[in-house]
Specification:
The complex is a heterodimer of chains A (about 280) and B (about 110). Chain A has one domain. Chain A is about 85% helix and about 0% strand. The radius of gyration of chain A is 20 Å and the shape is globular. The relative contact order of chain A is 0.14. Chain B has about 110 residues and is mainly beta. Chain B has one domain: Cupredoxins -  blue copper proteins (Immunoglobulin-like). In chain B, strand 8 and strand 9 form a beta hairpin. Chain B starts with a helix and ends with a strand. Classes of the chains: A mainly alpha (about 280), B mainly beta (about 110). At the A-B interface, helix 1, helix 2, helix 3, helix 5 and helix 7 of A face helix 1, strand 6 and strand 7 of B. Chain B: This is Cupredoxin domain-containing protein. Chain B: It comes from Pseudomonas veronii. Chain B: Keywords: Signal.
């Protein structure tokens, strides 16, 4: 029971966090009912996609664990990372237009431009981790019987409840801080997650390139570790593992990982500075 | 430019392995690893062939090895790991986190 609870919690907390942030932000907009529909449509579609991806993993296991599956997952992860950033910039831009134009006009444009982004982000957030959760639940569910299965199911539900409570707890910090600070934190969280997803995608792509027949410089730049800080902070346990999941920390990164993460933050920082100028 | 083209065409054609890599076998069985520790040579790329002989799915995962792979029951697949500096690299089955980790010893 503990096991299913913990796994469901860990797999769902990221998606719930993203949905929670979007939902709070949308509820503050005047076009909220329209945007809200995009968000919940994304969540529902995400659940369907989870089931679909999980079905692929279970019944086309050989293909999904092979290169095709890896490239597919890398592409989905990259897309999710890009959408996180796009969403943050979109929130910023919208804050700027609200000050300058009529609210109604801005809101209509907002719903048009941002709705699909909201939908896609929610869909990806749910389906990426959701599919793994479904595989895990299905596999264990098919193996267990009787009371063990009930305990397992209860654990799964408790995990989801716990993840929900975690997000509520984070959201309740809103009571002690201002909206602008709350959104600054939310945006920082989304951008950090975006970076972590980017690093995860680079890991996946690197793994594929290493398996191919490539010139030596590809192996060295995508494969070889440039330093090793695992003595200071290991990325396999505790804080380091948490930072790996949510920030993209790697104790022994490749050159490409370092350059990509560096480029990401330079680009994001530059974009944020610019949007502040236009605000 | 030529390199980019080469890279692109290799990606598109899904290039196959040419030079044989040092290969190690690892069996996953409902959270247990057989053998629990693999000893590999440091400083060279290598391949691990993974067999999931368990009844349930497994998720072979390790941040330091840069691998995260879901294996449904009965699946055999492989991962290629970057050259490691000498040391101990833990891995685990994310679907059975309560069981002891496995590890790779690079020397």
């Amino acid at each position: 029971m503990n096991q299913s609870m913990f796994i469901v919690w860990r797999e769902s907390v990221e998606a719930l966090l993203v949905i929670g942030i979007l939902q709070v932000w949308i509820s503050r907009q005047t076009a909220h009912s329209r945007l809200g529909r995009f968000l919940w449509a994304g969540v529902v579609l995400g659940l369907f996609c989870s089931a679909g991806l999980a079905g692929l993993m279970l019944w086309a296991g050989e293909a999904m664990t092979g290169p095709q599956g890896e490239w597919l997952q890398a592409a989905l992860t990259l897309l999710a990372s890009g959408l996180m950033v796009q969403m943050v910039f979109w929130m910023h831009r919208h804050a700027a237009t609200l000050k300058n134009t009529l609210v109604r006009e801005a809101d209509e444009r907002l719903a048009r431009q941002g709705g699909w982004g909201v939908l896609l982000l929610a869909l990806l957030a749910v389906s990426r981790e959701g599919s793994e959760t479904v595989v895990f639940l299905y596999g264990a569910g098919a193996r267990l019987q009787g009371p063990a299965l009930s305990l397992f199911a209860i654990g799964g539900v408790l995990g989801l409840v716990l993840a929900w409570l975690t997000v509520l707890l984070l959201r309740s910090t809103r009571r002690f801080i201002s909206w602008s600070l709350f959104f600054a934190f939310s945006e920082a969280l989304l951008l950090l997650l975006g970076g972590a997803l980017l690093v995860a995608a680079v890991d996946r792509i690197s793994g594929q390139l290493l398996a191919m027949d490539m010139p030596e410089w590809v192996y060295s730049s995508f494969g070889e570790s440039r330093w090793n800080s695992s003595a200071l902070l290991s990325d396999s346990h505790g804080l380091g593992a948490l930072l790996a999941d949510f920030v993209g920390y790697r104790a022994a990164p490749s050159l490409v990982t370092v350059l990509v993460l560096l480029g990401y933050w330079l680009w994001v920082g530059n974009g944020l500075r610019r949007s502040r100028h236009t605000a | 430019m030529r390199r980019a083209l080469l890279l692109g065409s290799l990606l598109l054609s899904g290039a196959a392995l040419a030079a044989p890599l040092p290969t190690y076998e690892l069996t996953l069985q409902d959270g247990h690893f057989i053998p629990p520790q693999l000893t590999v040579k440091a400083g060279e790329r290598f391949k691990i062939v993974l067999h999931n002989l368990g009844q349930g799915p497994a998720e072979f995962e390790s941040t330091p090895l840069r691998v995260e792979k879901v294996l449904s029951p009965g699946v055999t697949t492989f991962v290629v790991i970057h050259p490691l500096t000498p040391g101990l690299y833990p891995f685990f089955d994310e679907f059975n986190p309560q069981l002891p980790e496995g590890s790779i010893l690079a020397q």
